[in-house]
Amino acid sequence: MDADVERKLMSAVERMPAFPRAAQKILELTRQLNCPPKEIVGVIDKDPVLTVKILRVINSAYYGLPSKITSVNQSVVFLGINTVKNLALGFAAAGTLPRTNAAGFDMHKYLLHSLTTSVLARQLCVQFPAAEADPGDCYIAGLLHDFGKVVFAQFMAEEYKAALKLRAESGRPLHECEAEVIGADHALVGAMLAAKWQFPTALGECIRDHHRLDVPSTPLLDCLRVANQICRRQKVGDSGNPFRDDEVPAAQRFGATFDDIIAGVGSLEKIVADSAIFAQVGTK
């Protein structure tokens, strides 16, 4: 990589806000076997921003509860600890997004894409025996896989606007257009951000490689790739990178065709509806 490009990327990544400490602690706890839910609830309870957003979602018209939920503990009873944990991580990631950007990148649609990808990556991991990854890691990989685009849109806006324009005019994959215009793609920058946020090396490598076809596949990588392709094929949100008809689905590990996998995950309607509410609350 050109030294000037590397310096610009490092500078942009360093300007991103820190990943919330509460979310880091939740990730640490969920990697421990037999972690009591009350410990996760305790971490969330100490973060008033996360607590308010979780309660706002569960008390929204979408759930239509007859009485108001007033605590994280009550939320766990209704939604389950995994959903509450994922909500907290999603809100933590959304909290680092800028409200506006000069590149014209739609952050709301981006977040909807990422949240839905994260749920699907986790579902593929649980649903298919060959996907021998950690479901929590799959969720985080889906949530953060495109975060490099946020870095570009916020701190390298003119270059990113040119990359998005090239993608729209050429129909080529966005990561190729980014590499041509900027000198690096969002996957590499996302991996740099994951390192800054001190996420595990395997997660950073998965983010870095999710568009590379020349690296050996892993269960985590395949769950992310297929979930990402499903969202783009079904036009859920907008990652700035529409599905292409000549794109090769990364479905080999699952022993089924891409269309069969899409049919197997069931209706996306509920997942997308949940993600839309979370995205709306998460960016307020």
Shape label: globular
Task: Tell me the number of strands.
Answer: 0
Mean pLDDT: 88
| Main sheet characteristics | none
Radius of gyration, in Å, reads 18 Å
User: Helix- and strand-based class?
Assistant: mainly alpha
Q: In what range is the share of β-strand residues? A: under 5%
DSSP helical segment count = 16
User: Could you name the ranges where pLDDT drops below 50 across 5 or more consecutive residues?
Assistant: none
Provide the helix percentage. 55-70%
H-E order: HHHHHHHHHHHHHHHH
Distance between the termini: 37 Å
Task: Summarize the structure in words.
It is a single chain. This protein is mainly α and 284 residues long. Helix content is 65%, strand content 0%. It has helices spanning 3-15, 21-30, 37-45, 48-58, 72-79, 81-94, 107-127, 135-144, 147-155, 157-170, 174-182, 186-196, 201-209, 219-233, 258-264, 269-282. Helix 2 (21-30) packs antiparallel against helix 6. The protein starts with a helix and ends with a helix. The model has no long low-confidence stretch (mean pLDDT 88).
Tell me briefly what this model is:
With 284 residues, the chain is an all-alpha fold.
Features:
single chain, 16 helices, mainly alpha, 284 residues
Topology, element by element:
Elements: H1 3-15, H2 21-30, H3 37-45, H4 48-58, H5 72-79, H6 81-94, H7 107-127, H8 135-144, H9 147-155, H10 157-170, H11 174-182, H12 186-196, H13 201-209, H14 219-233, H15 258-264, H16 269-282
